[in-house]
Amino acid sequence: MLMPIPKTSYIVLLILTTLLISNGQAYPINITDNFGCDVTIEKAPERIISLSPCNTEILFAVGAGNRVVGGTTYDQYPQEAVNLPKIGGFSTINIEAVVNLTPDLILAEYGNGEDTINALKNLNLTVVSLNPKTMDDILDNIRLVGNITGNADTAALITTDMTQQIKDMTSQTETLSLDQRPRVLYLVWHDPMYAAGAGSYPNDLIWMAGGNNIIEAEGWPTISLEQVVNKNPQIIICSGMGGGSYTIMEAITSDPILAQTDAVRNQKVYAIADPNIIELAGPRIIHGLEELHSYIAPEIKPHGTGADDQENTYQLSGFGMLLAASMVLAVYSMRKL
Asked: Domains in the chain, start-ordered, CATH in brackets?
């Protein structure tokens, strides 16, 4: 079973970081960021601004936190990041506030918007943009940030540990057939229902943890009650920022239509206390993988279980389809009253 990274590991990393001589990194450094842009880091950055909570977590993890002079209003981890001078929200960056902090390195992310990133570059500021799409991308970006901040050794320690934990997990799940994998729905809101689809981090983590995401659409699509009933998830994960996970879970478990699904009937609806460990592309995503596995593992069918032997396989007949449609119409009509 995959074990979460103990707090003592972070203490060891911190000690190692203080022992490393960052000045030993050879500058200038030429890199290609996730946008395909060639960037030259002329010297070890001393004043770094992070434009996303994910980037902030990476900077602190690799040992560059003491050089971060600005972050967003959404930075919550680690605790030291909460009190950083703020340069706006994730998608509402205040250019003037950034300039006033005189950064020598800005770590941006795709969600900041191309216009914002270009505006900063046009001011002759050094900007490195990240846009990870896979777990490998996340590992590569941690190494990249470690490299450009003079903390390559610490970044290597972190990514080596993460890689081993991923291998420990996937060695248990990679041979599972679709029939063995429980059907999983990952919701980030309930009215309307927004779900994690293909190309999202939760989708990748669900597969690594041994499940099968029922949403095949790309990104974060809206889905209908009928779609959920037809796909019949065995596990529903509720993930909402600011305590919203529990609001979503309450809405799902009390919905008379979704009561038809295996997940609701068998009380397999779970709230994620801290969605950031799953939805932010930083070192803590390993903890998100472990949490998802804890929900999925009990529902994995043993080897040798075929599709014909599956219990509670939910395939709506014509009558069941009619019943589901009737319930949807009934609830819709009640909401209109």
From this structure: 7-165 (3.40.50.1980), 177-301+327-336 (3.40.50.1980)
